[in-house]
Recover the amino acids of this structure.
């Protein structure tokens, strides 16, 4: 077999090795099924155990209250940008307030504008998207349909620390790049969604956690697959779900519960990993320049720059020679970025931090 | 390893064994990538080769003309029911004509009605959905936005034999359960879509083949992921595609080209397999009752009934004891159904036909 590298890709991203090994072991024949997980009916008892098991794991990990549904959908975060606006903004007669903290919340408000009045409650662009706003900076509408936020901006490496207060308006959260990275008070949100391909599984499945009362806002004139209420009533089985991807989510959440020991433990590990890289940045006395303000730094994505493009190119090349791979920044902003999701092993981050110190010493 | 059975499931369905073996072999580390196919970026060179390779295979297999785009989407056929109506019916000022030949075209027209005037050009329900209509039976509108058909009704086992003539109106085709089963004159269609989980790969990816001029009908007020034009302009990479599922589609289409030898060869094999089962039905002198009219019989799905529920239960039990599995009919119609997609080995069908004859002899 070829050698696996330390994969700092922003998503699709590293998965727990033990999960991939289990998928590989059972790929020709899932125990008891007589066929591959890719070949079995979504209405079989075997798959029912998988999808209900995945839901139970998610409920346990996040402490999801009983009045919330857990849905498995397709289409990624982009599909949820549309779903949120189609179900909760369109025809509501109210504006929706978007907290714009980076690329992904920026895309979300753009999509929502096709369906109604979507207004920035705060816009981080003048500050170059380096932080999450303070409560007193938010300009919320009197009675918004909802308030929207992105809990972790993958490209800018900005992560919120305290949930904004939104009064009676439901708080909608894109948690694509930091779901399961730490405990979350789900009851403070009306709806949380997350594509799987950072912390939950492969691309192709999206998790949606939605409070029951919001389902009543879905209009009957929406096609079924765009209607949260209908998707929820059909327990995510209106049509064939992405069975393989749901299966991997089940295994990843098993890993979080049984090998890691839950989200509190996961958060401790993530904080430790992130600190290693931020320490290397801070100790470099300006050689490495982190993007985010210190109190908004993401534990998942660590974007940073060096004094020149040439140095960055040398950094990426030398890192790759040590099997520290996929550290280039997003094509829209350049620079470097280390994505250190749940499944990135501590030793990978240690090796990267060590390399960063060495590279700084040699090239400063 | 546990034993693999002959899997007659209607979808997700049997995949070529050699494909699953290759996925399994490379699952921990895709050659040259240093990571699993589940872990690599959709914008990496490795994945670019996979998705462009899959598209090239599809173009070669079906002879897709240059003025058609091949898109990889999520959401299954149900999502296309909505997309077709949102992009081509809504706001067109025209009706859309639906040829209703079974459960799936029935669901499609229901979804379309949320977006505009969707009319049955023919309705097979009074005949219990046993056939595809003749050209002269179609009641087409004077200037419809499009004419819609389902090329193979998975539940009723009805497959069309000659494309309906629709004049200037584009013909839209749900080919979910028979894509790649035989050559198709793509140029007679405006748009063909197919979820992958029958003949093309695992669930979670949907193939769309659409003629360029139809893209111009998509309205700018649609969210991006619901807009064919935007999806096409972004070459299916507006957001993260279901990378693993696209990879398997690449391998399945490799198999069709290189191991089978193309769709003409595939059709010969499929005709041979289907004939084995229909012969067993016809020779049973009414013990087995096929659902579809003889000239509309599907080569993919063979639904049939026996004189009593008890006999059907015994049939399913005894078949399963011989590793002939998942032969129960759809929960909405009951009975039995053998789905014999491309990847079902000839020997599986031989064994089933042999068992059908034996069971008939014993129980008639």
């Amino acid at each position: 077999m070829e050698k696996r590298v330390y994969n700092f890709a922003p998503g699709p991203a590293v998965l727990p090795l033990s999960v991939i090994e289990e998928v590989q072991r059972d790929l020709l024949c899932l125990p008891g099924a007589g066929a591959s997980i890719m070949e079995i009916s979504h209405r079989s008892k075997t798959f029912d155990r998988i999808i209900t098991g995945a839901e139970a794991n998610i409920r346990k990990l996040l402490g999801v209250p009983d009045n919330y549904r857990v849905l498995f959908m397709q289409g990624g975060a982009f599909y949820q940008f549309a779903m949120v606006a189609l179900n909760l903004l369109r025809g509501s007669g109210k504006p929706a307030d978007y907290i714009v903290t980076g690329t992904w919340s920026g895309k979300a408000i753009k999509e929502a504008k096709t369906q109604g009045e979507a207004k920035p409650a705060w816009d981080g662009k003048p500050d170059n998207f380096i932080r999450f706003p303070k409560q007193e900076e938010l300009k919320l509408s009197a009675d918004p349909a909802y308030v929207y936020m992105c809990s972790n901006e993958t490209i800018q490496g900005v992560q919120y620390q305290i949930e904004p207060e939104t009064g009676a308006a439901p708080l909608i959260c894109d948690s694509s790049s930091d779901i399961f990275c730490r405990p979350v008070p789900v009851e403070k949100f009306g709806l949380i969604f997350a594509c799987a391909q950072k912390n939950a599984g492969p691309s192709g499945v999206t998790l949606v956690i939605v409070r029951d009362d919001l389902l009543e806002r879905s209009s009957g004139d929406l096609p079924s697959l765009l209607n949260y209420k209908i998707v929820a009533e059909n327990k995510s089985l209106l049509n064939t779900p992405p069975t393989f991807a749901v299966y991997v989510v089940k295994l990843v959440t098993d890993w979080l519960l049984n090998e890691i020991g839950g989200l509190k433990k996961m958060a401790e590990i993530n904080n430790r990993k992130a600190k290693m890289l931020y320490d290397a940045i801070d100790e470099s006395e300006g050689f490495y320049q982190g993007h985010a303000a210190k109190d908004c730094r993401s534990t998942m994505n660590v974007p940073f720059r060096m004094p020149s493009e040439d140095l960055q190119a040398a950094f990426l090349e030398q890192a790759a020679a040590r099997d520290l791979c996929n550290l280039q920044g997003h094509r829209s902003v350049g620079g470097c970025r280390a994505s250190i999701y749940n499944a990135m092993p501590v030793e990978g981050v240690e090796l990267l931090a060590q390399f960063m110190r060495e590279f700084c010493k040699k090239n400063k």
